[in-house]
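User: Can you recover a sequence for this backbone? Please restate the input before giving your answer.

Assistant: Of course. Working from this structure:
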């Protein structure tokens, strides 16, 4: 990441978030009231409405996001609506999802310009629409098959796979463990 989009600052400046006092971040300033708020995940952000039935606020947020996206320097790759977010398995409370291009991340500062250059750093939380940002998963140990190629995986499979390897029950997992175990069973540990 080399550039930071200050989405919180954009929402404050658009009057969608009201602060209690001056501060560098929402946390330090405190939120007195809000109609819509970003929930950042570094490389992307869910946008949540306080009242999901408020069409006027939804329109204001869409207009703000489209305005930000119209400037390529802001690094917005796309704005997903509620249906697109659901298809990707994203937050069900998100009205919109702001997907940033590689090299960009969401920053929390309320000060200065909406976009800032930063020293090069790593981050996470980009949309799965960016295969060039994919990570890898490696697991080895007793009961794990050697040389098993699993191809691309859903990151929600990682925790249940690790839990299975550690023989820790994980009944609330969204997905089953990966089929990498020598006993052939992908069922959660009992």
């Amino acid at each position: 990441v080399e550039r930071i989009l200050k989405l919180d600052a954009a929402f404050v400046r658009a009057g969608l978030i009201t602060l209690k006092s001056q501060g560098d971040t929402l946390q330090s300033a405190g939120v007195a009231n809000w109609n819509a708020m970003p929930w950042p995940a570094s490389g992307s952000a869910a946008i949540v409405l306080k009242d999901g039935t408020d069409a006027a606020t939804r329109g204001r947020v869409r207009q703000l996001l489209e305005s930000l996206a119209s400037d390529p320097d802001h690094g917005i790759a796309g704005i997903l609506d509620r249906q697109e977010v659901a298809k990707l398995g994203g937050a069900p409370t998100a009205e919109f999802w702001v997907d940033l291009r590689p090299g960009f991340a969401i920053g929390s500062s309320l000060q200065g310009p909406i976009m800032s250059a930063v020293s090069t750093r790593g981050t996470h939380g980009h949309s799965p629409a960016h295969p060039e940002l994919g990570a890898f998963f490696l697991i080895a140990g007793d009961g794990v098959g050697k040389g098993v190629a699993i191809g691309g995986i859903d990151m929600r499979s990682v925790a249940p796979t690790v839990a299975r390897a550690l023989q820790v029950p994980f009944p609330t997992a969204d997905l089953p463990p990966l089929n990498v175990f020598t006993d052939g069973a992908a069922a959660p540990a009992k």
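That completes the design. The CA atoms of residues 83 and 89 lie 10 Å apart.
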